[in-house]
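step 3/5: co-fold with zinc ion
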Amino acid sequence: MKPTHIEHIGIAVKDLQASIKFYEDILGLKCYGVEEVKDQKVKTAFFKVGQTKIELLESTEPDGPIAKFIEKKGEGIHHIAFAVDDVEASLKGMESKGVQLIDKQPRKGAEEMSIAFLHPKSTGGVLIELCE
Ligand code: ZN
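step 4/5: write tokens
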């Protein structure tokens, strides 16, 4: 597997509306979509920067993964998502190389993408998402 580009950077935020305002008013980007991903207990907001996106993530539940992340580490970069041609094949290849996976099978993420996460224990502490 060889990623084609960084698809997006996921950023955990406490207040989605306040963060959207920062990215629009200060950075001059345009939010082109807000979407709730029930499965992940998050509300997301997307911005495009060239080929790469910024994905802001606000927890919709106090026990959601983003709420827990912010509790432990505070707001900030949560994950980096690499675009790959085939998530399922990439996962198989990585598993065979001993990489610990969070998702053994691809699942549906925001924007109808097929996604899967690798465990930070196997990646030097970075939560890596593969998406297609
Ligand atoms: Zn993501």
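step 5/5: annotate
The pocket of zinc ion is lined by residues 8, 10, 55, 79, 81, 129 (CB under 6 Å).
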